[in-house]
Amino acid sequence: MSQPPDEIRCQGLGVSEGIVIGQVLRMHPGTEQVYHWKIKPAEVETELERFRTAVAQAASQVRSLRQQAEERFGKDHAYIFDAHQLLLEDEKLIGDIESYITAERVNAEWAIKVIGDRILYLYSQIKDDYLRERRSDVEDVMQRILDALSGVSRKNHQLSEDAIIVAQDLLPSAVADLDLEHARALATDSGGWTSHTAILARGIGMPAVIGLRDFYRRAKTGDTIIVDSKRNQVILHPSAATLKAYEAETAAQAKVRLRSDRKHRGPVCTADGVAVTLRANVEVPFEFDWVEFYGASGVGLYRSEFLLAPRGGFVSEDEQCRAYEAIARVAGKDGAVIRLFDLGGDNLREQFQEPEKNPALGLRAIRFVLAHEEIMRAQVRAIMRAAASGVLKIVLPMVADSSDVQRAKSIIEEEAGKLRAAGEKFAEVSIGAMIEVPSAVLMADSIARLVDFFELGTNDLVQYTLAVDRGNDAVADWFHTLHPAVLRSIDQSLRAAERAGIPAIVCGEMASTPAYVVLLVGLGATDLSMTPAAIPRVRRAIAGINASEAKAIVDECLRCDTAEAVESLVRERFIERWPQLFDASSLPKPKPPE
Ligand code: PEP
Ligand code: MG
Question: Most confidently modeled of 111-115, 157-161, 393-397?
Fold first, then answer.
């Protein structure tokens, strides 16, 4: 009898709370995430039919591309599509994929992936340069069939059983696309606390451990796995004793969750009477109910680019308008701040633009929408039309200075003018600027003169101020939210807003973490937007402190030279002053000795 495999424990970073026991579902890396799932014998025929339909659709696309190429560039340039056509008609290739589906009883996508990889490997061994270069034709054709499969019946991507998604890296769009009824947790080799994948996992309450480095390679679909974000670990093939202990813990966890805090709503006051507004950050409709559930004062940040994730392309103005109306309804009288598409960086990059060498510094956010004006114009029209029936505001992501703001504002004003001239129902909206790059901090006074409010994006502010990639676990030790340079930047931005007499919402992940929130309050922040599930704990922390004491501590922090000095000061002062609110586990950890 074969021995059960040994238990394997891997340490990573727990970025979204919870413990889940389940089965691994590996997601293949690549631009297109490919699921691997088993099908029942009775489903084989349908799966083959699905595959054949996709091949026929791909072949018809190639025929029309060939025709277009011939018309535009002449016969000589259309020949490349002949190679694609031949591949799609290749009986051996198509037959191999069909046999794999039948013999292994797997979904068509997976069969394409396996057979495609085999062919690509053979091509890579060929000495002849020309033939070796034909790899790209094979890749292109495989991708085309995969696209046709996803377009023909996206529903087939739905998981039929609960699964823990294991991947090397997971794009935020892939998380947004998951079947949330059955995807129970995430475990990835890479990622950082403020990567959009982590933010989204927290937003939808899906436990996640990331930065596992070398885990993906060891896990197989169907293996038993425990994701334990509390202890920053995943356990593969848990022993019977481990499983028993975790089953007891997850049962207790379920009871705690049912006792969610529903009594408190609206703003919260510090013990010395400073009122702080608590808003919700929202990405996907799954989170809508939680805005009300956790008593948020509306939506402080709607990351609108997630509207595009499930469709894999742009969404029409009318459809956007309906989506923004829905968010306005969720937000109620306190309203919702809609951020213009923040595409690029780690956000939905692959779907919308060519790969860039340095995406975080590339055509991201406001730069992307200014470079694709039509996209921006449609979005602002949709927001202003939706604002006729609810309270909505626009925020401009990642502005570098007032010229970005000027350009964006004039486009918004032009579109308002057009809507007015056309007699459309719409409302003009307040316009804010995200302050999240160092130049915007330094130029905050001039930006403040042009906008109605600021939003401080602390995730990017840390990333860009310290030059530390927020999604790269290799530099996670340098990602210091409490670096004095970051605290000073927040301080400068809040002071600039104050001088201009405009409000400032702090909406990065810092605002979801009680210890950091105390410092934000000490810096004078009175408007915070966070992942909805964080609202009760942030509320408790604020209600339990004096703003004046937080200010005294923060003044000391601002004079520190290093992040380590701030962190140790915070540990010392918080435990001394508020032992009922903070213990070692809720404060920044000391650096382990070298
Ligand atoms: C931020 O940068 O802090 C922010 C709120 O925006 P995002 O995390 O979407 O970049
Ligand atoms: Mg940002």
Answer: 393-397
